[in-house]
From TrEMBL:
Coiled coil: none annotated. One of its GO terms (cellular component) is Holliday junction helicase complex. SUPFAM superfamilies: DNA helicase RuvA subunit, C-terminal domain, Nucleic acid-binding proteins, RuvA domain 2-like. Residues 158-201 form the Holliday junction DNA helicase RuvA C-terminal domain. One of its GO terms (molecular function) is four-way junction helicase activity. Residues 153-204 are annotated as: Domain III. Has three domains with a flexible linker between the domains II and III and assumes an 'L' shape. Domain III is highly mobile and contacts RuvB. The lineage of its organism: Bacteria, Bacillati, Actinomycetota, Actinomycetes, Mycobacteriales. This is Holliday junction branch migration complex subunit RuvA. Residues 1-61 form the DNA helicase Holliday junction RuvA type domain. It comes from Corynebacterium oculi.
Amino acid sequence: MIASLRGTVTSVELHGAVIECAGVGYFFRATPATLGTLRRGEEATVMTTLAVKEDTMVLYGFADAASREMFGVLQSVSGLGPRLALAAESVLSPVELAQAIAGGDTKALQRIPGVGKRMAERMVVELKDKVAQFSGQAPGDAEGLDLPLPSTAGAHGAQVVEALMGLGFPEKQAQTAVDRVLEQQPDMGTAEALRAALVSLGKK
């Protein structure tokens, strides 16, 4: 298992980044909060975990150990895979997830795209005793973090749509959500736009 990467950041996109280690570039998927800490051309270290299926291997990166641990804890829920776990951490920080689960706040959990009432209730029941370790961690937040992307609404809007498609949303649904978000706040940053779009999609 690839537990971490340390090297030069060669590419940063809304749904992932590439870090070059010993001449090999490793692409990993990550949340806006994690991607917002990376700068192209600078050295960085990310915690990672490799999700292996029959036909694919996907590397996921995290800014800290708590986020990686929560990613694994979330997947212990029946029917909750790595893509949904990443979506959960794109909307709520590990601390916010722990608080929602420990407090039985299913409405907060339903803000996560792909999580309905039954899945939210299942998360509370199956994870309530597993999230206490995250209660003392400082919460992370994607707000205020902006990725090195074009500043025009049209340009970064397309990037946000691409990121949502990478999380499994149909292009039309993703485009509608992004258009709605940017219409309301056209000056919104890229990371903020992605988070707002995820919240909007989670309400459906």
